[in-house]
Amino acid sequence: MNDGEKKKAKAARQAEIRRLYDAGVKYREIARMLGCSEKTVQRTVRGSGQDRLPASVRRLKPRQQKLITGVAQGLTARQAALEAGYTENTASNAKRDLLEKPALKAAFADLMRAQIPDELVIQRLREGIDATETKFFAHNGNVKAERNVINYGERRAYLELRMRATGQLKEAVERETPVQLVIDI
Q1: H-helix or E-strand containing 136?
Q2: What's the CA gap between 61 and 44, in Å, rounded?
Q3: CA 116, CA 71: separation in Å to the nearest integer?
Q4: d(CA 84, CA 66)
Q5: Which CATH architecture fits 53-115?
Q6: Which of 10, 44, 102, 184 is deepest in the core (most CB within 10 A)?
Q7: Tens-place pLDDT, residues 29-72
Q8: Are 105 and 96 contacting, i.e. CB atoms less than 8 angstroms apart?
Q9: pTM, rounded to two decimals
């Protein structure tokens, strides 16, 4: 076997290891199936970055893993579902699944915590809470002055986000029966 054939065989074995790992097969079982050492399987998986996913994510079905990693990378739930292999009809339910299925909800939260450290979240929230904007004053198309002012809209949005995240702000609940307001004059 020449070098080119060896490289192709190794690449094929690594692809098979990753495919089996994605399917939820354990290291020991993969090693037994492919006739290699468990260390080889571990090195291959670690080299691909797949083992960096939280355990709650790895326990999901491969399609569900792709769904939540796609959303974590910034895709809409529908786009992530389509890329993960969901059909057009079921892709529309992906957002609902993320919000309602406890396993998906917990796995998504774990993935976000793993990818975005708490310190970074706190830093960004602090920056948003202290937001300012630059106002430019022009006359006849020429900028005459500029001034940094408080950006109240951004600050309010970041404070609301912080309060929601810490449970200090609850969503408004719609009432089924109208409230009657009586004012005595």
Answers
A1: strand 132-139
A2: 20
A3: 14
A4: 5
A5: Orthogonal Bundle (1.10)
A6: 44
A7: 888 998 988 888 888 877 755 556 788 888 888 888 888 888 88
A8: no
A9: 0.46
